[in-house]
Amino acid sequence: MKETPFWRRMLKHPMALIGAAALAMFALAALVSFVYTPHNPREVDLDVQHQKPRLMDSDSDYWLGTDNVGRDILSRTMAGARISLRVGILIVVCAGLIGSLLGAVAGYAGGWIDNLLMRILDIMMALPGILLAIVIVTILGPSLQNAMIAVTIVSIPLYARVMRAETLRVKSQEFVEAARALGASDFRILVRAILPNCAAPLIVQITLGMGTAILETAGLSYLGLGDEPSVPEWGRMIAEEFKYIREAWWTVIPPLASISLTTLGFNLLGDGLRDILDPRLRGRS
What we know:
The protein has a single domain (6-282), classed as MetI-like (MetI-like fold, Orthogonal Bundle). 67% of the residues lie in helices and 0% in strands. It has eleven helices and no strands.
């Protein structure tokens, strides 16, 4: 029977489409922010502190209002999308590459190599991820780059365990035994035979991991372990305005909603990809 194309399976999964649409909205906002924002996201204007959004005040020049130093919240939210999506992509790429390599080597080599690598990763996973990230950033010093390094290190065990499990499954398949019988080197078997057949679960984990990476980085920024205050990070925006939430509650809604919707979008898309890419759940026509 002919296999249903990927895009058709995608169209039949409404949750994946909703997640993809939410992410497309933020990706568009991030791209637009490179060339246009209603106001300078870093410009301070003390004359318009905590100005209400236009929906609450028709005379306002700011669609989502301003923060405690008069910076435009819409412009900062758009610029924050650019930062958060870049952070998520860089973290999952680095953590995915390192974790996949460690997991593939551990699963394929077995023996003491497998035991050593897995025990080290088990120790890392035994610690709460955000706590380990805080310790790492505290040692390296507060900055967005160090926060990204911390979240990357914390994320590596997840990708390693996924890749190890898939490597153990695939390396016993007949085509791997055939490649070994034909004299293929271990490196060639790993790269040409095993890794391509482990891609589907890894893609799902990467998609889910991007939402987690954005959420954890925002958490570090909220704690003051991110970049300088003028940088429009969503977590930092919430931290700066939280003490004014009683009299200016609208200031925390845009960054809080952005973090929530972005994380939800990646989770919905990841769950959808799991259903679509799993051969046991694929629709066939």
